[in-house]
Amino acid sequence: MIEQIQKRSLVDEVIHVIRQNIKNDIWKVDEKIPTEPELVQGLGVGRNTIREAIKILEYLGVLEVKQGLGTFVRTKNDFSIVINSIHHSDLYEHVEVRCLLEIEIAKLAARHCTPENMRDVIACLEDRAATNQQDVANFMLSDKKLHLAIAKATHNKALQATYEYFLNSSYQYTLELVTNKNLPDPNQQIHTELVQAIQHKSESEAMRIAESMLAPILRSLDSIKADFVQNHLDQIL
Fold first, then answer.
1. How much is the pLDDT for 56?
2. Distant-in-sequence, close-in-space partners of 234: CB < 8 Å, separation ≥ 6
């Protein structure tokens, strides 16, 4: 347990340093940050710590990893304020909002997707399938890229930006959805069915599947909450 706390602390420290360098314009937007070996040497931490910090910052939309080119600054926005505000909600509220967004995105993607959109979506779907779910950081990133590709297929920039902003500000809740064994898992099959419905331009089917991905999680959270209340009452009585 002590080692895990130290590891999380190191990752947090690395994230803080990277954010400060971006905030202070040491690393500017669209510029490449130092390589992994340079960060390891400069910060005095291990490779795994650097990789985990970069994965989190990539998920948050702060960094972008370009294969073969390096890691680049995507934005200097600090999402910590948004993250703190999200913490005032709970997991149920998070899933409820995401469910609403996913349904609308599925409908508009089915209506407006182009062949180019579908190539991107299918590539992301295949990447998600090839990613080991036990590698939580990479799996979350591949899942996010798929959903963002679907959002892009809506051709509604406002909805796309809202959805991406929501995902970027809710890392901890998404992590809980992926790792909590008591919650249903929206598996690869249902993601494949969603992509197929969008490809066939079936709006109603895409909406139905999008809702079916998250509705079971809401029901499970309702059940967990009810069990907790009942157990608490039993202890009191």
1. 79
2. none
